[in-house]
Specification:
Helix content: over 70%
Largest sheet: none
Distance between the termini: 73 Å
Radius of gyration: 23 Å
Length: about 50
């Protein structure tokens, strides 16, 4: 049977996960809202021309 208390004592977070977390949070990613705003600006520019 698995002794969960012992297994929890052995647990150490993976450095790769921490590195990935930093990389994800430190990036300025384009989301759907940014894409839609860009599309609306393009349409407005085309209409004004």
């Amino acid at each position: 049977m698995i002794n969960f208390e012992e297994e929890l004592k052995k647990f150490h977070p993976s450095l790769e996960v921490e590195d990935a977390e930093d990389a994800i949070y430190n990036q300025d990613l384009t989301d759907v809202a940014d894409v839609l705003i860009g599309m609306i600006k393009e349409v407005k520019d085309d209409v004004l021309e």
